[in-house]
Amino acid sequence: xxxxxxxxxxxxxxxxxxxxxxxxxxxxxxxxxxxxxxxxxxxxxxxxxxxxxxxxxxxxxxxxxxxxxxxxxxxxxxxxxxxxxxxxxxxxxxxxxxxxxxxxxxxxxxxxxxxxxxxxxxxxxxxxxxxxxxxxxxxxxxxxxxxxxxxxxxxxxxxxxxxxxxxxxxxxxxxxxxxxxxxxxxxxxxxxxxxxxxxxxxxxxxxxxxxxxxxxxxxxxxxxxxxxxxxxxxxxxxxxxxxxxxxxxxxxxxxxxxxxxxxxxxxxxxxxxxxxxxxxxxxxxxxxxxxxxxxxxxxxxxxxxxxxxxxxxxxxxxxxxxxxxxxxxxxxxxxxxxxxxxxxxxxxxxxxxxxxxxxxxxxxxxxxxxxxxxxxxxxxxxxxxxxxxxxxxxxxxxxxxxxxxxxxxxxxxxxxxxxxxxxxxxxxxxxxxxxxxxxxxxxxxxxxxxxxxxxxxxxxxxx
Length: 463
Fold this sequence. Notes:
The protein is mainly α. The chain has helices at residues 13-24, 28-31, 33-40, 43-70, 77-84, 87-99, 101-120, 123-126, 132-152, 155-183, 206-224, 240-269, 272-277, 286-331, 350-366, 369-397, 412-431, 433-444, 446-462.
């Protein structure tokens, strides 16, 4: 008889908090001020946008925390959706993570890491390596393979790597912020963050202003993407009823404060118009340009290295956390059976990690950074909305269930978050129908896959 190896609870509360921060702080905080400046043309509005996106993410974290404390299993929302909506919707969530959301996040982060590394190398060194795009994709693929190998060997190894990196990354960000305010003496005020908001040029009426703010918000939401990932390892967190809600809320709060301070520092160093102008030069990174203005080439190089470390760490955390979704699907016999195998020596969902790595590498070669992020944000908010709605439904349908943590602001905040997610999805479909249909098509491709595995599952049960 085959002895089944199960996942072990080895992740502490403090490690879970750091994993939330690690899974979020990647490239967005260093890059996304550029499209936001191009949309809004005002520092106060940019900071308001970051704050609004952060607060909405916090409401989402509160909703997820209630469900995670009730059902702390591997797979996060897959487990909650299975209870609330049934296996079919839960499967579509897991499938969407494989073909769109989590795999695309891994690919996009690896892509940015590779771009940043390529930009740091002397031109003479890379001259004979082929086209820049080819080299960037090769390096991104190698990074995914390397970090998947790290997480293949154990969750403690992966979390330890993330812990070391994120502590160093946050310390470096705080040094940058401190120097921007205490050590850098701007010759003249360069930011309008405390002045009267300038209405964006695109906003000739009320609807135009909303459109501009919404476009900027999409950029901010990419910066916050990943706050829910710690729920995926619910089966491996110690005292999950307490530690998962704590990690979600405290980790998201830390990220909001960091992002506001970083963007305020950018706006102190350079005017908003300078960031907006960078839309014409997409190879430039806002944080690197700001550091170069503040501290010269050395400052720019230091920030480039910080971005390398940040995207490296965020890629590692995302690989570690999201592979558990595919493990949970397979354990329910709704996916490839080999993905439910736990490595007998390392205690990891090793085959699920390999599967995720293979698909993420494929996505690196299929799309660009912007295509990947646009797809995953649209798809993610379909399921974020389902989480908020799930809190409302479960409270009504099963009031008797034990709730170690209850979402603050119920029912107003979950209803508000669900309404926002629904509006974002509808506006995205209207504004970018082709991109939206591509995302919906990839998710819908899971329908025949689901019925195939359901049929196969039934046949296996009969035997």
